[in-house]
């Protein structure tokens, strides 16, 4: 068992998505054999959707007993339920609408047109998480957490130099001043993300290379939020060659 950061480099974006999808399927099956249920935290972004699409396209997709898988989200844009930018809608289109996961196992954040204000939505999600917690904690046992990484090093909706990355107590935050649209968002906090057994960060493209290099070189989490993210057992960066351009060779691998 290790919680060291590991970087697995893939030749291109398509190979990255296919590899992460295959690993997700086998890891989920293994965890189900071990403990009988799996909690997965989903990410937004184009690469994350390509991974979910690859899971859906896999011949091994239904080796997973989807009745035993519960889905959460790491963050969400504060937009209406059917808005095309909503992470939930994109994940449903890519995978969730195509598998036999029970509706009660899918836990999206509230949308802006569902009757709550942003702070109420954050409180509501925190209460839902706590209701599914174990051992008296605030959270379920997150097993696999997917995260993207922005060119500025942000993860979920935790951005550089904003108060959210420094939050210690809350599990869910209302973001009022996102530097990228929309201004308002909901996000899990850094401590909440770091309770995850496995954190899988999936990055592609030259524009991610600097943030990844800085995070692995020990940048502060205020400057580069991804530097403050670390799973309980595993923290894996799955990247293409372009995103790996500034990672020291001794930190990369072609397999693990």
TrEMBL record:
Which class of enzymes does this protein belong to?
hydrolase
Q: Domain Glucosamine/galactosamine-6-phosphate isomerase: where? A: 12-231
Catalytic activity line of the entry: 6-phospho-D-glucono-1,5-lactone + H2O = 6-phospho-D-gluconate + H(+)
**What does the record give as EC number?**
3.1.1.31
Q: Pathway of this protein?
A: Carbohydrate degradation; pentose phosphate pathway; D-ribulose 5-phosphate from D-glucose 6-phosphate (oxidative stage): step 2/3
Pfam families named among the record's database cross-references: Glucosamine_iso
Source organism's superkingdom? Bacteria
The protein's matches in NCBIfam families, at most eight in alphabetical order, are given as:
pgl
Protein name per UniProt = 6-phosphogluconolactonase
Q: Which organism is it from?
A: Cryobacterium breve
């Amino acid at each position: 068992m290790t919680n060291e950061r590991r970087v697995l480099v893939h030749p291109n974006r398509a190979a990255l998505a296919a590899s992460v999808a295959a690993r997700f399927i086998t890891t989920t099956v293994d965890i189900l054999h071990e403990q009988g249920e799996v909690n997965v935290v989903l990410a937004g972004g184009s690469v994350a959707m390509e991974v979910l699409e690859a899971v859906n396209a896999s011949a091994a997709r239904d080796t997973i007993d989807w009745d035993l898988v519960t889905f959460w989200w790491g963050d969400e844009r504060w937009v209406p339920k059917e808005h095309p930018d909503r992470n939930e809608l994109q994940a449903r289109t890519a995978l969730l609408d195509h598998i036999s996961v029970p509706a009660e196992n899918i836990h999206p954040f509230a949308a802006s047109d569902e009757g709550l204000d942003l702070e109420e939505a954050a409180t509501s999600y925190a209460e839902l998480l706590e209701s599914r917690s174990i051992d008296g904690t605030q959270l379920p046992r997150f097993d696999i957490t997917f995260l993207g990484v922005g060119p500025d090093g942000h993860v979920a909706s935790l951005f550089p130099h904003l108060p959210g990355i420094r939050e210690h107590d809350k599990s869910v935050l209302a973001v009022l001043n996102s530097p990228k649209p929309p201004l308002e968002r909901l996000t899990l906090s850094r401590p909440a993300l770091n309770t995850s057994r496995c954190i899988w960060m999936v990055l592609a493209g030259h524009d991610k290379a600097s943030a990844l290099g800085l995070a692995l070189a020990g940048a502060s989490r205020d400057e580069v939020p991804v530097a403050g993210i670390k799973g309980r057992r595993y923290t894996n960066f799955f990247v293409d060659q372009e995103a790996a351009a500034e990672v020291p060779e001794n930190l990369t691998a072609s397999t693990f």
